[in-house]
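As a point of orientation, let us examine one representative protein, giving the amino acid sequence and backbone structure tokens.
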Amino acid sequence: MKKNLVIAIDGYSSCGKSTLAKALAKKLGFIYVDSGAMYRAVTLYFLRNNINVGDDAQVVDALQHIELNFHSRDYESHITLNGEEVSDEIRLMPVSENVSEVSAHKIVRHEMVKQQQRMGKSKNIVMDGRDIGTTVFPDAPVKFFMTADPKIRAERRFKELESKGNNETTLEEVFENLAHRDYADTTRKESPLVRADDAIILDNTDLTQEEQLDFALEKVNPFLVH
């Protein structure tokens, strides 16, 4: 097997990208990289430190004080921000409501893309995000673009928040947040969310997690050398 086979998974918010990416990584023995968590952690730092996203000087200075690291336990991706475990906090609504604006910033994206590309130079990885197959790894041999019905996506996200003890957010608020993020992700100037020409569409509206994994494995298998 190649030592740096990259599987790129892009798609809309709450389409199950990370669920599929983690399942693929576990099945194949690859490393899972959650690119979205990187942008969320940066957003959390900006919120905590009152960084004005419209001020390039502040953004550049802030990025110099941010150190992100991934730790994998049972193929669950855990991220630390300057040594602090923030995996749960970055999934809460304050970050969700601001991450699109932060991740659309050219300086932020360039810095994160550089870090992501370094991760894929010498390792077999599965990476999910918004621009993995178009900007980060345009030459990745296997690319998926995930989508699902907006209502189903909102229900999934709402249940995820409830499972983490967040009972203050309504289903309607989650639906509106996802609609806002879809618009921001697809219309931003810097690396917008689009399907790569050679990406395989995976609509999991009516698929179980096991069914979507089987679908993906069937597409990946030809690229594996046994």
